[in-house]
UniProtKB/TrEMBL annotation:
PANTHER family referenced in this protein's UniProt entry, alphabetically: ENDO/EXONUCLEASE/PHOSPHATASE DOMAIN-CONTAINING PROTEIN (PTHR36688), ENDONUCLEASE_EXONUCLEASE_PHOSPHATASE DOMAIN-CONTAINING PROTEIN (PTHR36688:SF1)
Protein name: RNA-directed DNA polymerase from mobile element jockey
InterPro entries: RdDP_mobile_element
Top-level taxonomic group: Eukaryota
Length: 303
């Protein structure tokens, strides 16, 4: 059975790089019906534009992720929260899955930074970290590879299918000369995977971070939410210490920065405060041993 065209549901769009003709509309009639002209047609969930820079798609995707972040925040608060592993799984299912849909098509756009901004907020929710926390530390604590790495590996997976699967529509397609050097073609910017996707992500992530990484939550995630959140504040050195509150302009300039032990309350001071019965170091925090957990419990309602 042959497909029958439906002019009333057909849309048209002109793809070009001539800014002078950006507002020009096509006037095409098909089977007596004037076709609808649209500047941003959507095909299989991907919003296109005349120059194929995918700006509109990235903007719409950012809004969608922000909406899902709002749902994710329902699982946690400053005083209570679900198990960190539950929050992480929910974030991967709600936010990261939609952020990577069809990324081999648009993943090399310059506008993907907008999507990364929304995903940065997603991992802040998972870890309970504050906004001043460095982004690279957020993904290490969340046990999730950064968005650009996940998009790159997803594109490489598609390239592997294109090279090896005879059923792929682009099978045996060769790279031809490019008229514009600025264009980052799928065939030019991707390669065949030599390892499984998870191993490939970890290798690329380790090269960038220059340390051992894992796609799972670090030790300490099996504790209560407030302990997990405080533990991450101490690990990153970004928490609501009196020094930080003054630096961020939250507290009064004349307010005392002294801790309960009368010394200046910095994040590093919290590890060895005389008023705290527990002392620990950075290694203890990374391992989340009993000393680190007790220290986090002590400061959980203070920072």
């Amino acid at each position: 059975m042959k497909l029958k065209p439906n002019p009333t549901k057909t849309q048209i769009c002109a793809f070009h790089l001539k800014n002078k003709l950006a507002s020009r509309k096509l006037d095409i009639t098909w089977e007596g019906v004037k076709l609808e002209h649209t500047t941003h047609p959507k095909y299989l969930g991907v919003t296109l534009d005349r120059s194929l820079n995918f700006k509109e798609h990235c903007v719409a995707l950012k809004r969608k992720i922000c909406t899902r972040n709002t749902l994710l925040r329902k699982l946690v608060s400053s005083k209570w929260g679900a198990q960190p592993e539950t929050v992480r799984i929910s974030a991967l299912a709600l936010c990261f899955s939609v952020a990577e849909y069809a990324c081999p098509v648009w993943g090399r756009s310059t506008h993907t930074k907008q999507i990364d901004t929304a995903l940065n907020e997603t991992v802040r929710i998972i870890t309970g970290c504050l906004k001043p926390t460095p982004v690279d530390k957020l993904y290490l604590l969340a046990g999730i590879a950064p968005p650009h790495i996940r998009r790159q590996i997803a594109s490489d997976i598609e390239r592997t299918k294109q090279i090896t699967d005879e059923r792929h529509p682009m099978y045996n397609t060769q790279v031809e000369g490019f008229r514009l050097k600025s264009r980052k073609s799928f065939l030019k910017c991707t390669k065949k995977l030599e390892d499984d996707p998870q191993t490939s992500r970890l290798k690329l992530w380790e090269v960038e971070s220059k340390q051992k990484v894992e796609e799972k939550l670090p030790p300490g995630h099996n504790n209560k939410w407030m302990v997990w959140r405080t533990l991450n504040h101490l690990r990153t050195g970004v928490g609501r210490s009196r020094e930080n509150l003054k630096k961020w302009g939250i507290s009064n300039e004349n307010e005392d920065m002294s801790c309960i032990c009368r010394e200046v309350q910095t994040m590093s001071h919290l590890l060895n405060c005389n008023e705290c019965p527990i002392k620990c170091n950075v290694t203890d925090l990374q391992d989340a041993n009993s000393k680190a957990i007790k220290l986090a419990e002590f400061w959980s309602d203070k920072i």
